[in-house]
Amino acid sequence: MKTKIITTACLMMATISFTNAQVMGNAEYQKSGNVNYGGNQYAVNRVNTIQTTSSSQDEMVITIKGIYNERATAQIATFSILQLGKTAEEATSLVDERIGNVMKELSLYNKEIEIATDMISFVPTYDYTVEKKIFNPKTYNEKPSGFELKKNILIKFRNNNDFDKIVSVCGKYEIYDLAKVDYVTTNLDGVRFQMQKKAMEQFKEYMNNYSLIMNTDLNKKEKILQEGFNVTYPMESYRSYQAYSQADANFDPKGVVHNIRKNTTEYYNAAMVKDHNFIFNADITEPTIQAFYEITIRIKLKEDQLPKNTIIRNNRYYIITAAGDIKLLNL
Fold first, then answer.
1. What distance in Å separates the CA atoms of residue 148 and residue 125, rounded to the nearest whole number?
2. Residue 206 CB neighbours (<10 A)
3. CA-CA 20 to 30 A from 299: which of 159, 220, 230, 245?
4. What is the average pLDDT across 71-92?
5. Closest to 178 measured CA to CA, from 159, 158, 155
6. Cβ atoms of residues 102 and 176 within 8 Å
7. How far apart (Å, rounded) are the C-alpha atoms in residues 232 and 270?
8. Rounded to 5 degrees, what angle do the CA atoms 58, 61, 66 make?
9. Secondary structure of the chain as H, E, C letters
10. Separation CA 39–CA 165 (nearest Å)
């Protein structure tokens, strides 16, 4: 009976250990390296708090930060096309045919998909042999052996599921080079307004709480504020990643150990929320446009000893009355 209990406990511990490793992810496992079984595995993970408010005898500083995850209203995929031809007409005709076929198939699939082209370059090519160079008898220019035409095809779509079809159709006509994917939104003004509104709501709560703690009405104090707004797009947030792998385990003394090739790829790495006060749309799983908002309010705690309408000249103090007269202050 004791043997069965010990075996069950060991299996449970092994299952828990394996589950934790999978949840952590290989990207984080590479950072931590090999586990040190001889050390203390239950050391406390100390996390320092992020300061959002500070004060002195003269002023109080309150900083409020927020993130807004905005789904793209549209995406624009840019594919690069290279076409060679013996003549200029042949190169132009072949590339137009390929682009035309892509347009036709995607239009039948979804009429909302928009396609445009962008001319990049159109240059002649020449042979390296010097024995058979041919020149135009009128212009004396060397006749090219062929032409190289480069164009970009820009495909605008709104549904993420359409992108698989776009890649499939482009690949069918030998258009493989996906240069980039731009994310577009038409709601940045609305995003900024919502973030400002949320920051003001939190600021009012802070003012009420701090006024109670400090036994003074901070709402009547003089304030200076700074505001910041910025946006990052998904292409700016991708990070490179090399798959975790190692040599094959071979216990045969005469066996050969093979090194496994490590795959290098990228993954979307959104900005972390931990140093922000609020976040909109935190549960979106797809790559998003991230808007960042920050406001810093400096509250003047120490009142001025002189009235605000005081003028200082040659170490003498003058005050402007309501009638506009300037009078010397005897201090």
1. 7
2. 18
3. 230
4. 92
5. 155
6. no
7. 9
8. 175
9. CHHHHHHHHHHHHHHHHHHHHHHHCHHHHHHHCCCCCCCCCCCCCCCCCCCCEEECCCEEEEEEEEEEEECCCEEEEEEEEEEEECCHHHHHHHHHHHHHHHHHHHHHHCCCCEEEEEEEEEEEECCCCCCCCCECCCCCCECCCEEEEEEEEEEEECCCCHHHHHHHHHHHCCCCEEEEEEEECCCHHHHHHHHHHHHHHHHHHHHHHHHHHHCCCHHHCCEEEEEEEEEECHHHCEEEEECCCCCCCCCCCCCCCCCCCCCEEEEECCCCCCCCCEEECCCCCCCCEEEEEEEEEEEECCCCCCCCCEEEECCEEEEECCCCCEEEECC
10. 52
The band of 15, judged by pLDDT with boundaries at 50, 70 and 90, is very low
Identify residue 44 by its one-letter amino acid code: V
151: CB partners within 8 A, 6+ apart: 80, 81, 83, 95, 99, 117, 118, 119, 120
How is residue 62 written in tokens? 């309150």
Residue 101 clears pLDDT 60, i.e. is over it? yes
Q: End-to-end alpha-carbon separation of the chain, Å?
A: 95
Tell me: the pLDDT tens digits for 183-211? 999 999 999 999 999 999 999 999 999 99
Residue 299 token pair: 């509250």
Inter-residue contact 211 to 218 (CB < 8 Å): yes
Say if residue 37's pLDDT is above 80: no
Q: Quick one: pLDDT at residue 240?
A: 86
Q: Mean pLDDT throughout 58-65? A: 92
DSSP bridge pairs for 267: 239
Token digits of residue 10: 């060991």
Q: Looking at the whole model, is its pTM more than 0.70?
A: no
